[in-house]
Design a protein that fits this description.
Organism: Amycolatopsis albispora
Distance between the termini: 21 Å
Order of helices and strands: HHHHHHHHHHH
Shape: globular
Protein name: ABC transporter permease
Transmembrane segments: 20-43, 63-80, 101-127, 147-163, 170-187, 232-253
Number of helices: 11
Oligomer: single chain
Helix content: over 70%
Keywords: Membrane, Transmembrane, Transmembrane helix
Largest sheet: none
Strand content: under 5%
Length: 258
C-alpha cells in the first residue's frame, strides 16, 4: 500500500491543475483580509456607530469555498487519468482496482484536511491580527471557543474531496461530475429550504454546508430552517457521505472496463 500511496502522491503533485486549484488558499485568505479591512476601516472612521459594526467569524463561508475547490480536485484526480489513458497503466500495475481508489482517497484526504485547517485557522488568526485590540461585535470569542467550529469546518473539506472523487469515478467525465457538484451546491439548497414543515429542516440539516455547525454543537443557521441533527447525527451523516461516494465508486470500478 505504501507504494500505491507514493504513486498517487506523485501523480497528484505532478498535475498542473492541482496547483491551480490550491491557489484557492491564498485567494480565500485574501478575501478574508479584504472583508476584515473594510470592517476595521469603518470601525475606525465611525466611533459613534461602533456598536453596529459586526464581523462574524467566516467559518462557514471559507469552509464552503475551500470545499468547492477540493471537490473539483477530487474529480480531476480520477477523470484526468481516464482522459489521458493513464488509468489503464495504473490498473495494470495494481490489478486490485479498489486499492488504487483507496490510495487516491487517502492522499486526497490528507491534502484536503491540511487545506481545510489552513484556511479555517489562517482566516481566524489573520482577522484577529487585523482587528488588533478593537472590540468588534461578533468577533470577540476566544480561540478555545472557536476551535471546535473551525476544526469541524476544516475537516468537512475531506468529505467534499471524497464526493468529487466518487462522482468522477462514477461518471468518468470532468464536465459531468462538476455539473453534478454544482447542482448539489446551488440547486439542492434552494429546493430543500422550500420544502414544507420539518422536511425543510431535515433535508437542510443533512446538506454538507451545514454539517460542520451541527458537528460542533450548534443548531443555528441564519434565517433558514432550524438545523435538527445532534453532534452524533452529524457525524453519522458525514460517514454516510463518504461511504456512499467511495462505496459506489468502488463497486463500479470493479465491474467496469478501464
Amino acid at each position: 500500500m505504501t507504494g500505491i500511496l507514493r504513486s498517487e502522491w506523485v501523480k497528484l503533485r505532478s498535475v498542473r491543475s492541482t496547483y491551480v486549484i490550491l491557489t484557492i488558499v491564498p485567494a480565500i485568505l485574501g478575501l478574508v483580509a479584504l472583508m476584515t479591512m473594510t470592517v476595521v476601516n469603518f470601525w475606525d472612521a465611525t466611533p459613534a456607530r461602533r456598536d453596529t459594526v459586526i464581523l462574524s467569524p467566516l467559518t462557514g463561508f471559507t469552509s464552503w469555498l475551500a470545499g468547492v475547490g477540493l471537490a473539483i480536485l477530487g474529480v480531476l484526480a480520477i477523470t484526468s487519468e481516464h482522459s489521458s489513458g493513464l488509468i489503464r497503466t495504473s490498473f495494470t500495475a495494481v490489478p486490485q482496482r479498489t486499492k488504487v481508489l483507496a490510495g487516491k482517497a487517502l492522499v486526497l484526504a490528507a491534502v484536503a484536511f491540511s487545506v481545510g485547517q489552513i484556511v479555517e485557522f489562517g482566516s481566524f488568526f489573520l482577522s484577529r491580527a487585523m482587528i488588533g485590540d478593537r472590540i468588534v461585535v461578533g468577533h470577540t470569542s476566544t480561540l478555545a471557543e472557536e476551535a471546535p467550529r473551525m476544526l469541524a469546518a476544516g475537516s468537512i473539506a475531506v468529505v467534499y474531496a471524497m464526493l468529487g472523487l466518487g462522482l468522477g469515478t462514477l461518471l468518468r467525465s470532468t464536465a459531468g461530475a462538476i455539473s453534478a457538484l454544482v447542482a448539489y451546491w446551488y440547486v439542492a439548497p434552494l429546493v430543500t429550504q422550500k420544502l414544507p414543515g420539518e422536511w425543510a429542516s431535515w433535508t437542510t440539516s443533512v446538506m454538507l454546508t451545514h454539517l460542520p455547525e451541527q458537528l460542533a454543537g450548534s443548531g443555528k443557521f441564519g434565517m433558514g430552517p432550524e438545523l435538527v441533527l445532534s453532534q452524533a447525527g452529524a457525524a453519522v451523516a458525514i460517514v454516510l457521505y463518504v461511504t456512499l461516494a467511495l462505496g459506489s465508486a468502488a463497486i463500479v470500478l470493479r465491474r467496469r472496463d478501464a
